[in-house]
Amino acid sequence: MPKKRKPHGRDEVMASVLEAASELFANKGVAGVSVRDIAAKAGVNHGLIHRHFGSKEVLRRQTQEKLSADLIGEMGPGSSFEETMSMAWAALLKHDAYWRVLARTLLDGKWQGEIQSDFPFVDLAVQMAKKEQEQGRIIEDADPEMIVAGIMAMALGLEVFQDYILTAAKLTDGDPLETKANILNFWRNLIKLKEEPPE
């Protein structure tokens, strides 16, 4: 089996380090992984991580932001709030490293400063919720930030605590993926108007 070529140059090194950090942080948590572990997995000298990222905390934040960008890149532009939420759910299932690293980071409580520097998906979802409220498709007496926060809490909670939630609620007979989708659909239906808005 041919030996894997070591990354060369700043861009290759950073890409390889971010990929290695994503996998290790997702599986072991930020606190359970050293810079040397990441360097060994990435096939680079650990000094290069300090040179290009400065610290493990900067690497953690850039890893989270890369995973967030991958998630958003998977989605594409949705034509409605509901479609955007459905696309986000599908992307979340495909890119499980995003929520795994996020959950481990929050549970470890070891981050310093910001979890991420910005939240483009949340900003987009809130804008779309406001737009659909103006068009009469979503209940108007709910804060759009609360609507998005509720859906995010449900989607992320279902992923992180799936086994507990489905077992406790006695929802283990069917396909877990279908059950989770039905739970999210139930929440989405609660925020919609019962009647279609006038043309």
UniProtKB/TrEMBL annotation:
UniProt entry keywords in alphabetical sequence: DNA-binding
Where do the HTH tetR-type domain residues begin and end?
11-71
Q: Which residues bind DNA?
A: 34-53
Q: Look up keyword Isomerase and say if it applies.
A: no
Q: Which residues cross the membrane?
A: none
Give the source's domain of life in one word: Bacteria
- One short Pfam name that applies is TetR_N
Q: Which GO terms describe its molecular function?
A: DNA-binding transcription factor activity; transcription cis-regulatory region binding
Task: Spell out the protein name for this chain.
Answer: Transcriptional regulator, TetR family
- Organism, by scientific name, is Desulfatibacillum alkenivorans DSM 16219
